[in-house]
Amino acid sequence: MPDLIEKIAAETDLDEATAERALGMILGLVRSHGDQAKAGELLATLPGAAELAAKHGSSGFMGGPWATMSKLSAAGLSMEQIKQVGRLTLHYARGKAGVTLVREAAGSIPGLGGYV
Q1: What is the pLDDT of residue 100?
Q2: String of DSSP letters for the chain
Q3: Residue 39 pLDDT
Q4: For residues 70 and 29, is the Cβ–Cβ distance under 8 A?
Q5: Distances (CA, A) of 71 to 29, 37, 75, 94
Q6: Can you give the pLDDT at residue 66?
Q7: Up-side HSE of residue 6: CA atoms within 13 Å toward CB?
Q8: CA proximity to 31, closest of 63, 73, 1
């Protein structure tokens, strides 16, 4: 994940700590709100993803995408930076895990199906 964190930081003008936190929140959303089998499979194909999700992601099932966006905003990200982090994360995951698994895992999250 260090390469993705560096790319996010470079393309969003965030420092690496904030980029890591943002990525972890998004991965935590997938872990907590996606289809558990598909989300687990996806995170397993992305070395370090499960650890980032556990470190920075939500610990419960409340909230979902809108709560995650609110947390990202509270962490200092603009709406454009949130979109960029999402796009970069999806692109990276598709490259590592394949389009189908990413679509199945992220698309199972209520409210996100149309974006993947």
Answers
A1: 96
A2: -HHHHHHHHHHHT--HHHHHHHHHHHHHHHHHHS-HHHHHHHHHHSTTHHHHHHHHS-SSSSS-HHHHHHHHHHTT--HHHHHHHHHHHHHHHHHHH-HHHHHHHHHTSTTTGGG-
A3: 93
A4: no
A5: 11, 25, 6, 25
A6: 81
A7: 3
A8: 63
pLDDT in single tens digits along all 116 residues of the chain: 999 999 999 999 999 999 999 999 999 999 988 899 999 999 999 999 999 999 998 655 566 888 888 899 999 999 999 999 999 999 999 999 999 999 999 888 877 665 55
Domain covering 2-115, topology: Globin-like (1.10.490)
54, 98, 113, 26 alpha-carbon torsion, rounded to 10°:
20
Structure-token pair, residue 105: 């895992």
Number of CB atoms found within 10 A of residue 71's CB: 19
**86, exposed or middle or buried, with CB in 10 Å at 0-12, 13-18, 19+?**
buried
- Whole-angstrom distance, CA of residue 40 vs CA of residue 46: 10
